[in-house]
């Protein structure tokens, strides 16, 4: 296949069924996007300023938060534009780049969640060796490996998509450049690429999910052998947030990409894609922080540090005023 494309841009349909409620949808998505940016930004800031949170688990959580910021920032702005513009377009190269980054960030996220499961396994099943195994250098290498591995994993598929010819049809039935809608517009035979994408997605998702499940089998087995009920509850509480995020993400991925025909059910796929691109990035930081005692304590320590000097300044100004 050679790049004989005469298409210079794609038209994003967005959600034409919700045309009468575009303004409402715009503000709902904007609020969710703002909450996602705030929540993930909060995680980055609180971990950086609090020494007690600078541990492997929160280091990986920072990577996940930064990833969510990048992921939503390449998808949601165009979604918002589809609600405010009658004709939303994206240039050909921008579309190809969006496909590459969306799938690369997705792969990085799966890598990070797998590493976080391994981190919890070491912390609960081998607590005495945790500091020896999860050293600072090891954590940095694992984090870098997740990012490099995610980009390399999707590189060859992105090259194949980039070489596809597009001959006239340029209307994408989606709010971003997803693989299925883009393949449906190509004037070449894409069955082989669809099969390779499906095989790659299944193998990658199954392998990472298998590693996570195995980690939690050992974790749950160890927790059940803890004699104290309080100890069991405390140990399991460090895993519930991670398990919730894993369940949401893998559920959405299974429906969106692990299907025999990537062209099918575009309308319903767009609704489910919102779960993965809008709702999950908004919920993830709150899932990790609302029930996390350490993050709450770090927040109040930060408030106390900034509030103490501020109160002192106010007091001195009042004294000077008198």
Tell me what portion of residues adopts beta-strand conformation.
under 5%
What shape does the CA trace take?
Answer: globular
Count of extended strands: 3
The strands making up the biggest β-sheet line up spatially as 2-1-3
Oligomeric state of the chains in view: single chain
Our measurement of the CA-to-CA distance between the termini, rounded to an integer number of angstroms, reads: 82 Å
Biggest beta sheet attributes = 3 strands, mixed
Q: What is the averaged pLDDT score?
A: 83
Q: Give me the number of helical elements.
A: 11
Give the class from helix and strand content and strand pairing.
Answer: mainly alpha
CATH level-four homologous superfamily name? Rhodopsin 7-helix transmembrane proteins
Count of spatially separate domains: 1
| CATH topology description | Rhopdopsin 7-helix transmembrane proteins
- H/E element sequence: EHHHEHHHEHHHHH
Mind telling me the C-alpha Rg? Answer: 23 Å
Helix-residue proportion: over 70%
Membrane topology: Multi-pass membrane protein
Pfam families: 7tm_4 (PF13853)
Keywords: Cell membrane, G-protein coupled receptor, Membrane, Olfaction, Receptor, Sensory transduction, Transducer, Transmembrane, Transmembrane helix
Organism: Gekko japonicus (Schlegel's Japanese gecko)
């Amino acid at each position: 296949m050679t790049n004989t494309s005469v298409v210079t841009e794609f038209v994003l349909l967005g959600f034409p069924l919700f045309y009468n409620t575009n303004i409402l949808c715009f503000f709902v998505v904007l609020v969710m996007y703002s909450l996602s940016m705030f929540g993930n930004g909060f995680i980055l800031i609180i971990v950086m300023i609090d020494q007690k949170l600078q541990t492997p688990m929160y280091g990986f959580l920072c990577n996940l938060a930064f990833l969510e910021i990048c992921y939503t920032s390449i998808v949601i702005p165009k979604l918002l534009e589809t609600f405010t513009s009658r004709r939303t377009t994206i240039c050909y190269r921008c579309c190809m780049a969006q496909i590459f980054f969306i799938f690369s960030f997705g792969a990085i996220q799966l890598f990070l969640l797998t590493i976080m499961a391994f981190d919890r396994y070491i912390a609960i099943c081998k607590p005495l060796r945790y500091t020896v195994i999860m050293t600072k250098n090891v954590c940095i290498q694992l984090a870098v490996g997740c990012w490099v591995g995610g980009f390399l994993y999707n590189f060859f598929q992105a090259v194949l998509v980039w070489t596809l010819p597009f001959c006239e049809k340029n209307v994408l039935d989606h709010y971003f450049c997803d693989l299925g809608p883009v393949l449906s517009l190509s004037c070449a035979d894409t069955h082989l690429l669809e099969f390779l994408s499906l095989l790659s997605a299944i193998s990658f998702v199954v392998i990472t999910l298998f590693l996570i499940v195995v980690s939690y089998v050992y974790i749950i087995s160890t927790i059940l052998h803890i004699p104290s009920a309080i100890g069991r509850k405390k140990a399991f509480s460090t895993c519930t947030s991670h398990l919730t995020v894993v369940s949401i993400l893998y559920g959405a991925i299974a429906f969106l990409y692990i299907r025999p025909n990537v062209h099918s059910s575009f309308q319903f796929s767009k609704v489910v894609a919102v779960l993965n691109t809008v709702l999950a990035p908004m919920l993830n930081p709150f899932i990790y922080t609302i029930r996390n005692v350490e993050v709450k304590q770090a927040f109040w320590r930060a408030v106390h540090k900034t509030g103490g000097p501020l109160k002192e300044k106010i007091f001195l100004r009042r004294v000077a005023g008198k």
